[in-house]
Every structure is written in structure tokens, then in C-alpha cells.
Design goal:
The complex is a heterodimer of chains A (112) and B (116). By secondary structure, chain A is mainly beta. Chain A has no helices and 11 strands. Chain A is 0% helix and 54% strand. The relative contact order of chain A is 0.34. Classes of the chains: A mainly beta (112), B mainly beta (116).
Chain lengths: 112, 116
């Protein structure tokens, strides 16, 4: 049973465009929502994270939007660049502990 | 600071065998978590160790086990390998002291296990 559902599975965006990846969860006990970026041959790396007490968090070109009532959150990559081509994972956890539930990943390709 | 290291990087085994994977966390980190990554299921949490004790456990059969040593290095063992165990096994380290998910987890490059 997938605790965090992620879509789309793959995404192709033109350079300079906006990439949007969506995630949904059911467990209302989740209170920490990170996004990870993974390049081929590497482990995932933390990109940005949000707590449910805010509806949006921005770091550079990356923004998380969070909708607590809908139990959904999304990653927006503005001005997408070819170097952003990677697999992106959303995740969720309860604050106490390091057990994360990951989405199935989105393969992003940014075309020059 | 050196990152998380995992050995070996690649491994080929046959069904029924057992395998041991190793993870060295970032210096000073006391928490080590293990994940299984497959194309269909994504990353799934196996277990977490902190100060040589298993602190959290995911929903995997008892064939999957782990341990942590006093220097925080961790090993994961899979016994009686099945074809479905073919996956990338990732370990992640974090300071762990706060026991908070907001501790950033740093992932290693993984061990690619193929079961024939």
C-alpha cells in the first residue's frame, strides 16, 4: 500500500518552462514533507522540505505548495534547466523518527 | 567531510544465497537507515539503527535484518535471496540525536543487488 502517491511518472519540459510534480497522502499524522532529487548512479539528495503549518516554501527556483485540507503537496521548478533532469521523489514522515514514506518518483527531462 | 559510503557497489547472487551489505555513515552521525529502491515500488523503508539499536522497522520479512556497530557503521543482511530482492539498496545517515524527521538524511550511492 503506497502511503504517498506521486504523479506524473515522467515529465518532459522545455528549457525555461515550469515543471510541476504532485503528491498526495492519506495519513494525517504526517507532518514533514521533503522532496529529494536523484541523479543516475547517485543516492537521493534533499532538495527542499515543508511542514504543514505553512502553505508554501520557496528556495531559489524550487517551490513547495502544500494543501493540508486536500492532503496534497507539489513541487514547482521554475525556469527549468537541462541540469534539473533527474528523478524527483516526494516523501512524508511523522516528526518523531526517521521513517520516511516515499512516492514512486518522477523522471524529469528538460529539453534544451 | 566524507559522504556516506556503501560497499560493495554491485553484487550478483543466486536464489537461496545470503548477502551482507555495508554502510559507513558520515562522521559523527549516529543514525543509519536502510531503504530498498525498485522501479515499481520506489524507495521503501527497511529499518533504522541508532546507537547500535534498531529504532524503527518497516514492513519487510524477517529475511531482512541489520545491525549497527559502535562506530555507527551498519550492515544489512538478506538471507535466502529471492528474485524479487533484486534492487538498489540505499543507506542514509543523519545525526539522529534529536530523533526528528527534520534531521537531514544523507544518502549513499547504493548497492545494486541482482539475484539470478
Amino acid at each position: 500500500q503506497q502511503q504517498v502517491k506521486q504523479s506524473p511518472q515522467s515529465l518532459i519540459v522545455q528549457k525555461g518552462g515550469i515543471s510541476i510534480i504532485n503528491c498526495a497522502y492519506e495519513n494525517t499524522a504526517f507532518d514533514y514533507f521533503p522532496w529529494y532529487q536523484q541523479f543516475p548512479g547517485k543516492g537521493p539528495a534533499l532538495l527542499i522540505a515543508i511542514r504543514p503549518d505553512v502553505s508554501e516554501k520557496k528556495e531559489g527556483r524550487f517551490t513547495i505548495s502544500f494543501n493540508k485540507s486536500a492532503k496534497q503537496f507539489s513541487l514547482h521548478i521554475m525556469d527549468s534547466q537541462p541540469g534539473d533532469s533527474a528523478t524527483y521523489f516526494c516523501a512524508a514522515s511523522v516528526n518523531t523518527g526517521n521513517q520516511f514514506y516515499f512516492g514512486t518518483g518522477t523522471s524529469l527531462t528538460v529539453i534544451p | 567531510k566524507a559522504g556516506v559510503t556503501q560497499t560493495p557497489r554491485y553484487l550478483i547472487k543466486t536464489r537461496g544465497q545470503q548477502v551482507t551489505l555495508s554502510c559507513s555513515p558520515i562522521s559523527g552521525h549516529r543514525s543509519v537507515s536502510w531503504y530498498q529502491q525498485t522501479p515499481g515500488q520506489g524507495l521503501q523503508f527497511l529499518f533504522e539503527y541508532f546507537s547500535e539499536t534498531q529504532r524503527n522497522k518497516g514492513n519487510f520479512p524477517g529475511r531482512f535484518s541489520g545491525r549497527q556497530f559502535s562506530n555507527s557503521r551498519s550492515e544489512m543482511n538478506v538471507s535466502t535471496l529471492e528474485l524479487g530482492d533484486s534492487a538498489l539498496y540505499l543507506c542514509a545517515s543523519s545525526p539522529g540525536v534529536a530523533y526528528s524527521s527534520t534531521d537531514t538524511q544523507y544518502f549513499g550511492p547504493g548497492t545494486r543487488l541482482t539475484v539470478l
